[in-house]
Amino acid sequence: MYRTNTCGELRLANAGQVVTLAGWVQRTRKMGGMTFVDLRDRYGITQLVFDDSRDASLTDRANHLGREFCIQASGTVCERQSKNPNMPTGDIEILADSLNVLSESLTPPFTVDDNTDGGDELRMKYRYLDLRRPIVRANLELRHRMTILIRNFLDARQFIEVETPILVGSTPEGARDFVVPSRMNPGQFYALPQSPQTLKQLLMVSGFDRYFQIAKCFRDEDLRADRQPEFTQIDCEMSFVEQDDVLDIFEDLARYLFKEVRNVDLPAKLRRMTWHEAMKLYGSDKPDLRFGMTFVELMDTLKLGKFAVFDSAAYIGGIRVEGCAGYSRKQLDALTEFVKSQQVGAKGLVYVKYNEDGTVKSSVDKFYSADDLQALKLKMGAADGDLVLILSGDNANKTRVQLSQLRLKLGDELGLRDPDRFECLWIVDFPLFEWSDEEQRLMAVHHPFTLPNPDDIPLLDEHPEQVRAVAYDFVCNGIEVGGGSLRIHDGKLQEKMFKILGFTPERAQAQFGFLINAFKYGAPPHAGLAFGLDRFVAIMAGLDSIRDCIAFPKNNSGRDVMLDAPGYLEPGQLEELNLKVTLDEKQ
Amino acid sequence: MYRTNTCGELRLANAGQVVTLAGWVQRTRKMGGMTFVDLRDRYGITQLVFDDSRDASLTDRANHLGREFCIQASGTVCERQSKNPNMPTGDIEILADSLNVLSESLTPPFTVDDNTDGGDELRMKYRYLDLRRPIVRANLELRHRMTILIRNFLDARQFIEVETPILVGSTPEGARDFVVPSRMNPGQFYALPQSPQTLKQLLMVSGFDRYFQIAKCFRDEDLRADRQPEFTQIDCEMSFVEQDDVLDIFEDLARYLFKEVRNVDLPAKLRRMTWHEAMKLYGSDKPDLRFGMTFVELMDTLKLGKFAVFDSAAYIGGIRVEGCAGYSRKQLDALTEFVKSQQVGAKGLVYVKYNEDGTVKSSVDKFYSADDLQALKLKMGAADGDLVLILSGDNANKTRVQLSQLRLKLGDELGLRDPDRFECLWIVDFPLFEWSDEEQRLMAVHHPFTLPNPDDIPLLDEHPEQVRAVAYDFVCNGIEVGGGSLRIHDGKLQEKMFKILGFTPERAQAQFGFLINAFKYGAPPHAGLAFGLDRFVAIMAGLDSIRDCIAFPKNNSGRDVMLDAPGYLEPGQLEELNLKVTLDEKQ
Q1: How far is B111 from chain A (nearest CA, A)?
Q2: A37/A7 Cα distance (integer angstroms)
Q3: Yes or no, beta carbons of A559 and B103 under 8 Å apart
Q4: Is residue A513 classed exposed, middle or buried when 0-12, 13-18 and 19+ CB atoms within 10 A define those classes?
């Protein structure tokens, strides 16, 4: 051992002990004949003192230490004259009598400090230095702590962690697979799993009863902000359960994590909101409940044959922005620009200001009478001083989604989205299918294994779009943290689902034959759920991005800029795999 | 919940309770007017009774249950008339008053029993049924339990689990990489990690101090028996430590696991044997210490100018097989055939029988005098009744390896390798390099990051083959369960190693530039170790093969026969990846 103690543990009670520490030079200061070195390791910072009058040559060596040198030093723990109450070790210092440079350091390309001067690109290239910053390391320590808590929680409830393979078969349904050429099976490819979905269902068929896995998943998608090609899921499945059983156990898990990690008490029973209600009130299947501004439908109130835009609309909805009647022209223009941006896609924004002095000013004054706007005020539950913002459109849910984006923007601007408050809920009763304009067919909202609501099964043939799924999402602060469903365990119903989703029986058999066959041997009713670990850690850490909860993340082009991966193969490697890159032919 | 209790928990104390169970039909028996159903779930088996005189129609339905039907049944817990002391639930049965078939089952292709009639191929194809067998599930439960114990042990000692990426860069040094084409970076490939070696070293540079990860690793090797293309490693790394610190902590981990899992007490301090001693005494760097039969070198004793084979040998070694002088001609021929097999590759086997009656019979009687053979007896420490077996050859270590195979075979035949005894030790002082006939250059015995023994550094330039590594393996019962080393943390020494291993500076920079650069910023002394989890579980479970410790293993062609993976891609997938399979052109 190069040390007797870490840099985080010595206290006044240790005074007089001779110790050896090892770590990195955070900074050095020379004050008169004394040189002070802040020595850092994972556990903290301890001050070393070199006294010129005791050992001039040793102190001279200390004076030549650079930032981030890795050193070892021995000495005696002494009480400090000027204590630092902001550091756990601030009462003591080590009067050094030996110094050993373990490795020198070049000047780091950015400061190794919570408030670094390094930009994103540079930090990623030198990620090994970025990870020395306590704030980044704390995120990974939190991630570790959460996985330990999660595993022990689930273990205590009879869940078994089972590792499922990373080299599986390709299932082109859903997102795009990463594939792996097989040298031993020429011309054939493995795929990396998008999730262990089918394998965990097989484990239920196997009678594992309660399974979990903190599992790596892979999706070859064009990376939108804050997506990673590989991500980690807390993946769970249970047999012989109903929806309430699943929701109860996983909200207990969430409650336990929030308490242990953040000392936050979630309510004894989380709110359960139907998808339909969430869309109606928040225009989102992951509503942020940290603030109100719920939607009010205004078809009856404003479709009066007076304003062509509203008269032709299939949906008109408003939100009340409390106390914001004073918004300036400029502020309102910015909001209008926002809703008309490509990202949101609305045609325009209608506002009505109910001023503190009782006057009303709106962008539709020329269409509506004062009485109309008073009726609106009543309907909106608005008071003097409030601002009402209204969107309309010819597709109700699309317009709701636009209004939701406006609501969240206002929440941000008004500081209503406190990162230290946590509002969690379940969204239930999702639709089973959604129409894809792109594919011109029905797609599964979750995946093809989701159980239709038994009450809606008669609708499957004629009105599949009306069928509800027994599916649920766990939402926190406007973010979907997890989701799952009861699964189909009846081979015949599963085959019917594949048919509705446009699979030929042959394709269903080729891709999911193993599951369809497994269901012929006494499949139990089962259900499951997966939390996004990266996302969960980010929420707990109060971070906007998942990237800083991942040790070695990839950038938006899927590159690891530190490793400089991906890269080109040697020709022999391609040949062994019977592969040729066709890039040149195309260009 | 489909049940009030599991099939493993009801006892006499529960008599009179009305319960609901769910599970699989293990077997049904009709005895007079009673039908008995053994209901199985993960937790055990409980007997259901259907009484014809109470409910004829219910009993009739029970009579039509098939093996592996998944059912739910309710009834009253009753004391059994004929108790079964071999089952935890054997004192009770459930007098059923309702029955619900959750899913029927086809007749399984093999019996779902510890002693199944299914062959390997069939079991793998229907792995989801194979996993219902309690003996197979127990292995995966053990695996889960071990990972929970390991994580909590390491967590308590300040190790942080950090997930490293699965999509990394290809490093053609070492085994063959699996590669993953990148669609977003056309023509470029990721590789799957053979181990997190370089990334965990970077975490040490980052000051993580103590890292671990239960990590998936990948090697595209031709699969020898009991190798898997993907396998799992308990991967650890520590900073500011010497070899003894690493060995102490990980033998504590092993001691903890053996105690918790098998109730076996490993000695307070494990034996540490040098590689040189292990080769000399056992002809193996992973000696099985459950039995003796250590090698005796016989150059002085038998190189007497009397027997040309021995006279020209560079090595002659013998083992004493206690009490086996009575081996028959046939037995000795079989052993001779074994050592001459391709697998072993010796030229022949010499035997000397020291019979109980004092006579001596050997295959070299015509070359050696009675006195010579008495001298041999003394040297071998043999007694009357013992058999001495001797191999010779022109390469000492190759011959030792052959003799080792003979020793292990005899250990097996004589029942000296008790799966319930555990003999663990450390092998230390490995050579740093070994000569590769195939590559015609020195190769790293462990990997290029292993620290040379500081005492041997002067030999690096002139006699690299004599340099010892600060490397160690954890061996149990003749199996290498783990291994590791102190690492180089000095960029200059690392560059020198790459040079000795035949890397051009450009290639070293291209492949390991990130690590060489990282070492310029204050790298701490560090060391690590990885245990093979699959192997460790297999030893604890008393299994010869790792395959039954893995939920969904691959066969010797790297195929998952259940998933039927790998498989062919759709043409669009290849096109998106700018790839073409060149198989047709070649054939």
Answers
A1: 12
A2: 12
A3: no
A4: middle
Taking a C-beta distance cutoff of 8 angstroms, is the pair B549, B140 a contact?
yes
Of B1, B23, B168, nearest to A565 by CB-CB distance is B168
Q: Which residues of B touch A180 (CB under 8 A)?
A: 178-180, 192, 566
Instruction: Evaluate whether B189 touches B170 at the Cβ level (below 8 Å).
Output: yes
| Shortest Cα–Cα distance, A187 to chain B (Å) | 6
User: Phi and psi for A189 in degrees, rounded to 5?
Assistant: -135, 145
Q: Is the distance from CB of A200 to CB of A238 less than 8 angstroms?
A: no
In this prediction the ipTM stands at 0.95
> How far is B184 from chain A, CA to nearest CA, in Å?
6
Q: Considering only CB atoms, which chain A residues are within 8 Å of B128?
A: 202-203, 205-206, 514, 518, 521
Nearest to A143 by CA among A409, A441, A571, A535: A535
- Tens digits of pLDDT across chain A (587 residues): 999 999 999 999 999 999 999 999 999 999 999 999 999 999 999 999 999 999 999 999 999 999 999 999 999 999 999 999 999 999 999 999 999 999 999 999 999 999 988 888 999 999 999 999 999 999 999 999 999 999 999 999 999 999 999 999 987 667 899 999 999 999 999 999 999 999 999 999 999 999 999 999 999 988 777 789 999 999 999 999 999 999 999 999 999 999 999 999 999 999 999 999 999 999 999 999 999 999 999 999 999 999 999 999 999 999 999 999 999 999 999 999 999 999 999 999 999 999 999 999 999 999 999 999 999 999 999 999 999 999 999 999 999 999 999 999 999 999 999 999 999 999 999 999 998 888 888 888 888 999 999 999 999 999 999 999 999 999 999 999 999 999 999 989 999 999 999 889 998 888 889 999 999 999 999 999 999 999 999 999 999 889 999 999 999 999 999 999 999 998 889 999 999 999 865 44
Position of tokens 């242990």?
Answer: A260
Measure CB to CB from residue A161 to each of B144, B242, B519 and give the nearest one. Answer: B144
Provide the residue count of chain A: 587
Q: Do A128 and B189 touch (CB under 8 A)?
A: no
Residues belonging to chain B? 587
Q: Which residues contact A46 (CB under 8 A, 6 or more apart)?
A: A7, A8, A10, A21, A23, A38, A39, A89, A92, A93, A94
How many A×B Cβ pairs under 8 Å? 366
- Say if CB A401 and CB A284 are below 8 A apart: yes
Residue of A nearest to B187 (CA): A581
pTM: 0.95
Domains defined for chain A, CATH in brackets: 12-103 (2.40.50.140), 137-273+424-549 (3.30.930.10), 291-413 (3.30.1360.30)
